[in-house]
Amino acid sequence: MGKVLFVTALTLLLHAQLGSSYILSCYFTNWAQYRPPPTIFMPTDIDPCLCTHLIYAFATIKNNKLATYEWNDVELYSQFNGLKNQNGNLKTLLSVGGWNYGSTGFSQMVSSPANRQTFISSVISFLRQYEFDGLDIDWEYPANRGGSYSDKENYSVFLQEMRAAFETEAKQSNRARLLMSAAVAAGKDNIDSAYQIPKLGQSLDMINVMTYDFHGSWDPMTGDCSPLFQSPEDQGDFIYFNVDYAMNYWKSQGAPAEKLIVGFPTYGNTFTLKNPADHGVGAPIAGAGTPGKYTQEAGELAYFEICGFLSGATEVWNQAQDVPYAYKGNQWVGYDNMKSFQIKVDWLKKSNFGGAMVWTLDMDDYLGTFCNQGKYPMINVLKKGLNLEQASCAPPATRLPPIAGVSTSSGGSSGESSGGSSSGGSSTGSSSGRDSGTSGMNSGFCAGKANGMYPNPTNKNQFYNCSSGKTYFQNCAAGLVFSSACSCCNWS
Fold first, then answer.
1. CATH: 3.20.20.30, 3.30.470.20, 3.20.20.80, 3.40.50.720. Which one for 20-266+335-385?
2. pTM for the whole thing?
3. Mean pLDDT of 194-213
């Protein structure tokens, strides 16, 4: 009996020393840098003590190898992973793929042992070079959207091979094993067609379930983005479109509960009502809602934009699904707020899931100026709810060495790019690197200037992006010109 008590006491002591065992992983998007001031978001805007894991979205795949996507990714990697110099417990992962990347490139990569080996080898060297702690795979979705039927099996094999390679490399290098996470579908049809769930559960450290976008302007009617429970009005497949069903379905199919991470959106999906007088859940719509001033994406508003929308709007608490919605004129938004996040995080703990995943850092009110609820109000609800407030946040014993070659003014490789998001978004600007048509541009332009984007007076297709006094040259996509009115690339 004494031995049992000793073991129990030791377990409690260890738990007290370690604090919360929950994961709070938060996505950073490399296209938030193109937002209009003051909402330009860079890695230096991230609070290094907020989340346990940070995930950088997105990298891409070229010739079956992991590759950068944005022109200045390497510079941003340095800032992003430099956050670990302020919080020695912070873990960072690089996410590859995203909604806009689709399925074809992944499908080709996993299709043969040689292609898989090429990719896995490139991942290890890439992550170590740029000081990431792991890889997040955002394949939306295996065997769907241009993929092949064999993706389902090949994805499992790929994950098993990568896990084995990561373990071997850790022994050889005497470093901590690289982590593996995946962003996975929350819709039952996609889950059934895409994944061999027990095998994923064996290979992955974290299974980030994208429990949002259950309803949006692709539907014929209004609905909340991330309802916790089923609505009494739900019929057909819509009965599966809620957080509770999706998470418990993953668990029932063999995923370990402690590896299942619940997705939390810091944005809402918007609709234009067909008839402003018909404004309940399930009301008929005419299409997507009006784009937000800052995120500039039809059908979606960041939480910090929703706070502005609520002025003069009618807010309704959707009692059955434990989420709010609001309407004003012909505009309707289904979203999450601090109350719904608190209810969800309490539910998460009762359900014994592993933690929370946030899409995204840059759509919370990170400045604290839009909602008057403090900085990062939504994510702080999760941090407090998961008992992470007491977690230690102190510099590591040894700082990370600087990434070679990052001190250059460009810091990235040249090449056309435009962002894409897990929730279907895209950046407003397209950029290209230092070698692409930058003649006549002034490398000292940003000295003393506020962060933001400025036109090149000699070329309407080009603009300067100023960050902490550093000058970055950028081009709009072909046919577009830079507009100071929106700080974005637009049709002339």
1. 3.20.20.80
2. 0.82
3. 98
